[in-house]
Amino acid sequence: MAGVLAVALTVSAAAVAQAPNAAALAKTVDAHYNHLQSLQARYTERYRGMGMDRSESGTLLLKKPGRMRWAYDSPAGKVFLLDGKNAINYTPGDAQAQEIPEKELDDLRSPLRFLLGHTELAKELTGLTLTLVKLEDGSVGYTLSGAPKGMDAHVKTLALTVDAKGEIHAMRIEEIDGATTVFSFSGMKENVATKDSDFVFVAPKGVEVVKGEKPI
Question: How many CA atoms lie within 13 A of 15 on its CB side?
């Protein structure tokens, strides 16, 4: 037992010794995503707050510059997309889909759009810190945390869990009111083929697209 503990402590100490600092790892993440043109991944979204504990899942598609589509399969038919100018949010059963200019967007999914722009995490997140974590496969990972610029009225911290190559495995957002949303990603496919139509919202019959209110 003492031998096992000694090995564990040695491995832990080695991981700490080899860990990059926050600024260096942020640059690794920048380099990993700045060369991409598109990205596809499966995601699970879990929200805890306001007396709720809700999980949803689906497929995320990103395309440079700044386009994204969150296609939910749970609940089926729900979609959130950025078409390069506007954000559109629609939930099945609603009579309306909300459209908001991208520059006015303050949505918890929006931080990921910088991944396919010119990413500079050290500038996107103030007070950047790094901690060691264990990834699902048992390997050593890291969490980069900070306050996202432009979202300080609602968001306290944004934390990205990444591996040594700079690939993002999860994103955790803690809001000012204490609510948390965690996005977990899997099955990453880089530079996948995309169509312009992937980022165009086609309203179901009887659904009206209306201008949403600017976030307070």
Answer: 17
